[in-house]
Amino acid sequence: MGISILRQQISVIARVSRRSFSSTVKIMDIGFNGKRALVTGAGKGIGRALTLKLVEGGAEVVAVSRTQSDLDALQKISPKIQPLCLDIGKWEETRHAMKNVGPVDYLVNNAAIMDVKEYGELTEKELDRTLNINVKSIVNITQIIANEMKARGQGGSIVNVSSMLALYTVHGYGFYCASKAAVHQLTRSMALEYGPYNIRVNSVNPTIVRTAMAEKENLFDPNNQFITMMKSRTPLKRFCEPEEVVNPILFLLSDKAAMVTGIAMPIDGGLSVSFA
């Protein structure tokens, strides 16, 4: 009789444990069914990985890139991806192209460029190009999307992809650092302005991420002394993969972060701590 009762108790505990586990998984699940997102710089790196994750989560995504072949490749993966080939560094062209985008619940300003040069070597054309893409495009696109969010009255979430270099400076990367510092303050001021409309604005500030842009600038070259120093000062002793930036972005976009706005989230393996 005692063994029978014990078996019954074990069976009850097992059922409760299964229900508890199932409940936990459900609570932590982040889904985007029925939502629409717009992602800039969607053709490669972080933007591409993010676009695919959003689609996997049920969202439709307006994927913005200036490279048509990258957009063609994305569209072949899912019909939920709406390609928009566009140079966001051109103000009026961008405004015209986004007239018919439709309602958007999430905006990720991800596109950026990097010119690694000392200040004495930078040209006006390079300065303008960096400002146009890294800073002005965020203002332009956010105006367009946030105004539509306000008109709908349903709120929204915006994430700006910044950099740890918004807060620190590195020799030769000065103007890129300055452009990302501008993104840092844009995020804070946008959060203040759009908050009353239930539009949240946050940024993520990653360390070096394994993307085509980083590879182009030899940021993963083992002979690069600066990179070696950076890695040695990173407590986790490595840099980021695109997916490790994507997951925090998904959280910030989602309702799980409903009370989070105006923050700059470091994704740097603890590097910022070593500079504190």
TrEMBL record:
The lineage of its organism: Eukaryota, Metazoa, Ecdysozoa, Arthropoda, Chelicerata. Keywords: NADP, Oxidoreductase. The keyword DNA damage does not apply. The keyword Oxidoreductase applies. GO terms for molecular function: carbonyl reductase (NADPH) activity; L-xylulose reductase (NADPH) activity. PANTHER family: D-ERYTHRULOSE REDUCTASE (PTHR44252), D-ERYTHRULOSE REDUCTASE-RELATED (PTHR44252:SF3). Transmembrane segments: none annotated. This is L-xylulose reductase. Belongs to the short-chain dehydrogenases/reductases (SDR) family. Homotetramer. Gene3D superfamilies: NAD(P)-binding Rossmann-like Domain. One of its GO terms (biological process) is xylulose metabolic process. InterPro entries: L-xylulose/Carbonyl_redctase, NAD(P)-bd_dom_sf, Sc_DH/Rdtase_CS, SDR_fam.
